[in-house]
Amino acid sequence: MGKRKENSTNMHNEKYITQCDLAYAICKIGGRWKILILGKLEHGKLRFSELRNQIGGITERMLTLHLRDLEKDGLVKRTVYAEVPPRVDYELTAIACDLIPIWRQLESWGAKHKKLDL
């Protein structure tokens, strides 16, 4: 693979994301599903199937990809139990719990402004 150009769009975006705190935060929780996944884990541990059943419209593949991202970013803790059949739980980490008041505020904002769209 070739070396990336210093002035490429991807390099510019990465630099911006690491320098702008808001862009950094949005990259960690942005997208259609991540904040919903985190919100479902607010009240405690859930298994993969429980998460999938609580989030309408998400595919297994998309849930898997987002859970991996959230775990890599330190927002979700994945625990595998040595049982047959295997059991895996997902839960919020301490830094993800710091986001709870933020998504509550977003939820409130959404409720208020959704009425204007109807």
In short:
Helices cover 58% and strands 12% of the residues.
Radius of gyration: 17 Å
Query: Major sheet: order of its strands?
Result: 1-3-2
* Total domains: 2
Task: Tell me, rounded to a whole number, the average pLDDT.
Answer: 87
Order of helices and strands: HHHEHHEEHH
How many β-strands, per DSSP? 3
| Class from secondary-structure proportions | mainly alpha
Q: Per CATH, which architecture of the largest domain?
A: Orthogonal Bundle
Question: What proportion of the residues is helical, as a percent range?
Answer: 55-70%
Q: Remind me, CATH topology of the largest domain? A: Arc Repressor Mutant, subunit A
Briefly, what CATH class of the largest domain? Answer: Mainly Alpha
Return residue spans where pLDDT drops below 50 for at least 5 consecutive residues. Answer: none
What is the 3D form? globular
What's the SSE blueprint?
Blueprint: H1 9-19, H2 21-29, H3 34-40, E1 46-47, H4 48-54, H5 60-72, E2 76-81, E3 87-92, H6 94-97, H7 100-117
Antiparallel strand pairs: 1-3, 2-3
Helix pairs in contact: 1-2
Organism: Sphingobacterium anhuiense
Pfam families: HxlR
Protein name: Winged helix-turn-helix transcriptional regulator
Describe, in plain words, how this protein is organized in 3D.
The chain has helices spanning 9-19, 21-29, 34-40, 48-54, 60-72, 94-97, 100-117, and strands spanning 46-47, 76-81, 87-92. The longest helix is centred in the last third of the chain and has 18 residues, at 100-117. The protein is built from 7 helices and 3 strands. It starts with 8 loop residues before the first helix and ends with a helix. It has 2 domains: 1-30, no CATH class; 31-117, Arc Repressor Mutant, subunit A (Orthogonal Bundle). The protein has 118 residues and is mainly alpha-helical. A 3-stranded antiparallel beta sheet has the order 1-3-2. It is 58% helix and 12% strand. The radius of gyration is 17 Å and the shape is globular. Helix 1 (9-19) crosses helix 2 (21-29). It comes from Sphingobacterium anhuiense. Residues 20-118 form the HTH hxlR-type domain. Keywords: DNA-binding, Transcription, Transcription regulation.
